[in-house]
Amino acid sequence: MHWTSLKIKDSPLRTSWQADEIIVTRGDELIEHLRGDEIERVTLVHAGEGDMPGEVRAAIIEMPDRVVLLGAGSGIAGRVLFERQAFWSRHNCIYWISERCVSWPEAPGESRWPFARRVPQHRALTPSAANSLFERSDLTGPHTWDQRKQHRIDRRRPFRGRAITAAQTHSSALT
To answer: Smallest Cα–Cα separation from 77: which of 47, 54, 95?
Structure first.
């Protein structure tokens, strides 16, 4: 007889704003306090062009002494993109990077092939480890979701940089 261990699924991570902090919990257990006034930079890792909120795969939140990586399953994209927009506009600290350009850290038991790796749902990183994630690419930003949306609209507009007006027509009647 072959015994297998039961796979117990951890309850998912959740994020929420409480006062001026982003709180990260797993069930009833407190995992992280991310004080808003200590956040220096938020880097949103996106799939595709990063034009849709559902393309955000992770957020890397940098503070003076530590860095926290949170997967999109925690709800962090909504906390950054749609909640407390005045806060994020004032701080002007949201940057964007394509997931193709991120060198995800290896975790024990995961594939060594980079494309097969999953985005970690929670990981504490040192500032130097966080910088190594971005070695292969430039970040874009800082800009909020509304600024990014406007940039997307401008980028897809035909005849960029030209004002398009209706041409005045002259009617000439045959006499």
So the answer is: 54
